Predict the structure.
Amino acid sequence: MKKLLLSAAILFGSLGAFAQGGLGYGLRAGVNIPKYSLSNESTQSNTGFFVTGYLDAPVSPYFSIQPGLSLQNKGGKWTQASEIKESVMSLDIPVNLVAKLPTGDSGNFFIGAGPYVGFGLSGKRKGELGEGNVRIERDLNFGSNENDDLKRTDFGINFLAGYQLTNGFQINAGYGLGLTNLAPASGDMAKNRIWSIGIGFGL
């Protein structure tokens, strides 16, 4: 965890040396709609939230690099013969290349993509088995052993788009494509798939 935060701090500091026109910054927050992509199907979607702080390092008048720290609520839901919900809190470090398309004096559209690395902080599984006679609620175990629930580290690609007014207010949408198989058990597969929508403010 300390190495993760140290790497983020070094990355943010290094970008300042390459930025043209000065660093900006911003905050985005909103609703996540996460699920898992499994071996032959997908879980149903859960509902969560995200909060992301980011730097905006211009590399040209129309392109910026935006590294950030993001608290992400991920997971999924199973509803066959029971209803089990899995909720995971993850600290992600995204680094996106963002293109800005001005629309006169009103603001600009933006669209971007880039990699992220996520670190599972905590998780919970709860629900009802069968006809509701058995209720379960327990914390998730992170690790790479067969008896663990999820691997702790996730890698993937972010996609984002939105519109920002000249006063800094923005609306945004995104998609997170997890590339890491988070299932520790041999032969299983579970990858994050996350839609999001939110608002934010950038300077």
Summary: The helical segments are 2-18. The CA atoms of residues 141 and 149 lie 5 Å apart. The beta strands are 24-38, 48-60, 63-78, 82-102, 107-129, 134-139, 153-165, 169-178, 190-202. The radius of gyration is 19 Å.
